[in-house]
């Protein structure tokens, strides 16, 4: 099932996305919240009549760096032996169609297409064989990065944590199992031109490895998001660009870049 979060007439709700053709999608409004007990209401609204919101409101976004060898190399970095994590704050999250605001303190902002894992239940010290049980589903992410700032500051809080630097969406796909999610085509286009094309099968550390690694250290909560790294081909965005992350079997996340007002 594809679960979207949206606003209509000032109310916020979750809905199951039904249909195949992009212009004919409808939302079956969900009674309750997707992480607990819920049912479909049968009340349907066309997707074109609502505003999609970030599909989840994470308490935290844990992101993993240099998890595709080709991307690590293109920036002159070693492929790390063990996964390494950093945070993107909840205030960095925006939804599909929301604007990425180019920050004033950077002159080199990059896109990074990434598979996002959405956590479905509170968990800590998750053993490898239980990882599949704590995953709610998957969505598309853009780990927008102020590359110049990342290079000159040891911690990446500003470079990767500025407001609007974490687009998520367009919805959470809950029908992919972990094996399927580990072999999906992932691509990024800017103004329609392809910039990144890879497969989640190219990750150095698997989805299981990443969840085991982070939950050794901290509790993950329902709605938390784990970003799994970006394939090769990262590059700059400029004001006016439209950037789209597409992951096979999930959908397309599109955002425009604007000057921060
Ligand atoms: Zn990244």
From TrEMBL:
Record domain Fumarylacetoacetase-like C-terminal: where: 60-258
UniProt GO molecular function: acetylpyruvate hydrolase activity; isomerase activity; metal ion binding
Occurrences of domain Rv2993c-like N-terminal (ranges): 1-55
Keywords from the named record: Isomerase, Metal-binding
InterPro entries in the cross-refs: Fumarylacetoacetase-like_C, Fumarylacetoacetase_C_sf, Rv2993c-like_N
Pfam families: FAA_hydrolase, Rv2993c-like_N
GO biological process: carboxylic acid metabolic process
The protein's name: 2-hydroxyhepta-2,4-diene-1,7-dioate isomerase
Biological source species: Streptomyces ruber
């Amino acid at each position: 099932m594809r679960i979207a979060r949206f606003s209509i007439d000032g109310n916020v709700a979750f809905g199951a996305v039904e249909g195949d053709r992009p212009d004919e999608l409808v939302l079956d409004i969900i009674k309750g919240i997707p992480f607990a007990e819920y049912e479909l209401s049968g009340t349907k609204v066309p997707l074109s009549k609502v505003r999609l919101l970030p599909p989840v409101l994470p308490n935290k976004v844990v992101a993993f760096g240099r998890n595709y060898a080709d991307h690590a190399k293109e920036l002159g970095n070693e492929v790390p032996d063990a996964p390494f994590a950093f945070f993107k704050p909840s205030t960095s999250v925006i939804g599909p169609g929301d604007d990425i605001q180019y920050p004033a303190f950077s002159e080199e902002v990059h896109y990074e297409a990434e598979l996002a894992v959405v956590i479905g239940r509170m968990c800590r010290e998750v053993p490898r064989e239980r990882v599949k049980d704590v995953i709610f589903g998957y969505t598309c992410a853009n780990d927008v990065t102020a590359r110049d700032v990342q290079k000159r500051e040891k911690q990446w809080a500003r470079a990767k944590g500025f407001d609007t630097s974490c687009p998520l969406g367009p919805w959470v796909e809950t029908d992919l199992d972990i094996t399927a999610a580990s072999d999906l085509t992932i691509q990024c286009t800017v103004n329609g031109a392809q910039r990144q094309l890879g497969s989640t099968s190219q990750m150095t550390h698997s989805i299981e490895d990443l969840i085991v690694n982070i939950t050794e250290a901290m509790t993950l909560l329902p709605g938390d998001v784990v970003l799994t790294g970006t394939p090769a081909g990262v590059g700059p965005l400029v004001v006016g660009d439209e950037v789209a992350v597409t992951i096979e079997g999930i959908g397309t996340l599109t955002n425009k870049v604007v000057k921060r007002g």
